[in-house]
Prior knowledge:
The protein is α/β, with parallel strands linked by helices. The chain has two domains: about 5-95 and about 190-235, Nucleotidyltransferase, domain 5; about 100-185, Nucleotidyltransferase, domain 5 (2-Layer Sandwich), CATH 3.30.420.40. About 25% of the residues lie in helices and about 30% in strands. The longest helix has 18 residues, at about 70-85. The radius of gyration is 18 Å and the shape is globular. The N and C termini lie far apart (about 45 Å).
Amino acid sequence: MITFAIETSSQISSLALFTDERILASVRHQSHKLHTGFFKVVEDTLKELKLSPKEISRVIVGTGPGSFTGVRIGVSLAKSFCQLTGAELFSVRSYFLGLNEYERGVYYIPVIPSTRTECYASLFLVDEEGKIKTIREIDDGGPVRIAAWISKLSPDACICIYGEGLSMFSDMDIPSGVKVDFKKPDETSPNAENVFNLLKKYPEIFESGNPIFLKPLYVRPSPAELKKIDSRKGDK
């Protein structure tokens, strides 16, 4: 079985093609040319591997949260691809794709910027059975909300905070005794290649989707994107 993974929620978009045994290709691409360049990257990668789209059995797409335009394009590409080829469609929250493995007993808080002062965030851990368990999830919040989450955890809890919104947490007050590991944003940007390992270890985070009804996970336009949307409305 050949799987095609797509992740377009962050500043860097990515794709990966793999079998059950190995990664065939992994490519990252600057998202500012997403509407043209990323589609060309997909086409070139398939040609380089001498693969027909119909040879792909499964498509997995990151549904956000993240870039308003990026997530919509990634989800639309995945849905169209599956409708044209008959491949199965699966979705995964993009923040899970920031790392390719998670330790048991550690609380993870991925943070994705939604505005300059707020972010999308989640709180999850790997339970005793080795499955990822989501405890909390928000589509609008900031360091104060995250600090409140941390204050309710065990005083000796181990916490890992990662993602592109990490810069807004530099001055956050950490309760005494709590161990917090801040991962570098450039090392934890969602990456389609991580699907290869996560699919084997944590299949519960991947959800079967319908190519007709699958939607991005709560994304909002940036101020610049809102201006473009408003200007288009005025033209009609």
